[in-house]
Amino acid sequence: MGFLLTILLALLASVLGGLYLLGAFRWCRPGEPPLDRGPIPWLGHVLEFRRDTAKFLERMKRKHGDIFTVQLGGFYFTFLMDPLSFGTIVKEARTKLDFRKFAQNLVQKVFGYHSDHRFPQMSSNKHLMGDGLVVMTQAMMSNLQNLMLHSVGTGDNNHMPWKEDGLFNYSYNIVFRAGYLALFGNETPKSTESMEKAREVDRVESQELFLEFRKYDQLFPNLAYGVLPPAEKREAERLKRLFWNMLSVQKVKTKENISVWVRDQQQEREEHGMEDFMQDRYMFLLLWASQGNTGPAAFWLLFYLMKHPDAMRAVQGEVEEVLKETGQDVKHEGPFINLTQDMLQKTPILDSAVEETLRLTSAPVLTRAVLQDMSLKMADGNEYRIREGDRVALFPYTAVQMDPEVHPDPLTYKYDRFLTAEGGKKTDFYKGGKKIKYYNMPWGAGITMCPGRFFATNELKQFVFLMLTYFDFELKNPDEKIPDIDTKRWGFGSMHPTRDIQFRYRLRF
Ligand code: HEM
């Protein structure tokens, strides 16, 4: 009898322990945000969240208001949906809210990279601003010219053939390859015996890399969530190894014009004694961070301009003005136009068009791990207790970028939304009569805010400048509807369309 009782008690203890781990005993304590554990033990709401993050969070906001805690795959996430209160999370000390802890797991899962070293972040990121940015922007220009204009002047001026492509594929391809070459370096003429040959090797090699990257890109959301079926998991492993090899430190070291951003990060790791194979993995991580978002953003920017003739005219006028000011003219046999960092500072209309594009199509989830019990003070004065071990998150796309009070008619592309009446940058946006600081957050915010944002903006602007100056281009179907956003990718940055849009283009010179 005693033995039976012991077994029963053990069984009961393990059932209760199991239920505890599944989150069945978590209740909302006084002072905590409303808790919504979801329909499935432990998994919580994760299926609905993954199916369409924006829709799910809209539903939760309608149900619970501006702050709520939901269970997602064993973790409790507190989402804060009031943009006036974002500062409490963005500015909170790292002793309470930490990004690294959360990011490390993802980076290991997706890129195979892990390291015990803590590297000084500033040394790498300073190169994405100031003088480093000037040099990188110049390198981007030269690589865009190589990819987009290498056949200029080779045909009969009047009969340049039209080419057809998907606009998404074309924009992503060009911006990815030029960005990759600008950061990871070019083939040396020494190894190929001529400059022309070296430039051709750059074109071929970057194309191979792009094709493989797109395969990985498509597996990425499921890989990040750890739900790839076995065959796709094997394919992701194959691709990972291929990138570690294609981007290996030994290979990159044979290149010339490697950006200081990539070179410094590699040297830092070498000096800290990191093994070569782990440095190779880090190179892949840098490729992903730098090239995964800008190409898709270039697509949306060009597409919105093509769908809005008033926006296209305004940008075209600005482009012509900037070129005229610097005395540059595009001629059949003349030199390529050059767009420097200085010139790219003089384009408030294009800046606004870029910002509007990102408002509509960049949708990161910003997550922090809660390192100690703490309280969150909202702009309305209410205070909420948050537990150690949980996570807090922002999804600015739903919380602010699509808020009709902050951005009237939020689904419509308005190229001048971020322009003042005087033609400068508009930063005054309001909610509930209060001026709001975080009115558009495509780059994230705070300590983890995208350090590549200045370079990315330059890349987008250079791409548009060259398209408008050197090419005729048009949609195959002028009545083409704006494609839907692929909801599988919410949370990772630039969104992709659910389908490509056919267009045709030809060189004018
Ligand atoms: C349109 C293009 C881009 C978009 C929309 C974008 C967006 C983002 C976002 C949302 C984050 C995470 C921010 C957070 O969690 O708070 C991020 C991080 C990062 N981005 Fe970008 N990015 C773009 C282009 C670039 C480029 C061109 C580079 C490099 C040259 C770059 C380098 C990085 C790096 C290194 C991080 C990690 C920062 C850290 O954890 O310290 N990004 N980006």
UniProtKB/TrEMBL annotation:
Pfam families: p450. InterPro entries: Cyt_P450, Cyt_P450_CS, Cyt_P450_CYP7A1-type, Cyt_P450_E_grp-IV, Cyt_P450_sf. It comes from the Eukaryota. Heme binds at residue 450. Residues 1-17 form the signal peptide. It is found in: Endoplasmic reticulum membrane. GO terms for cellular component: endoplasmic reticulum membrane. GO terms for biological process: lipid metabolic process. Coiled coil: none annotated. Its main location: endoplasmic reticulum. GO terms for molecular function: heme binding; iron ion binding; sterol 12-alpha-hydroxylase activity. Its cofactor is heme. It is a single-pass membrane protein. Gene3D superfamilies: Cytochrome P450. Keywords: Endoplasmic reticulum, Heme, Iron, Lipid biosynthesis, Lipid metabolism, Membrane, Metal-binding, Monooxygenase, Oxidoreductase, Signal, Transmembrane, Transmembrane helix. Substrate binds at residues 109, 293, 391. The chain crosses the membrane at residues 282-305. Belongs to the cytochrome P450 family. This is 5-beta-cholestane-3-alpha,7-alpha-diol 12-alpha-hydroxylase-like. It comes from Oncorhynchus tshawytscha (Chinook salmon). The gene is CYP8B1.
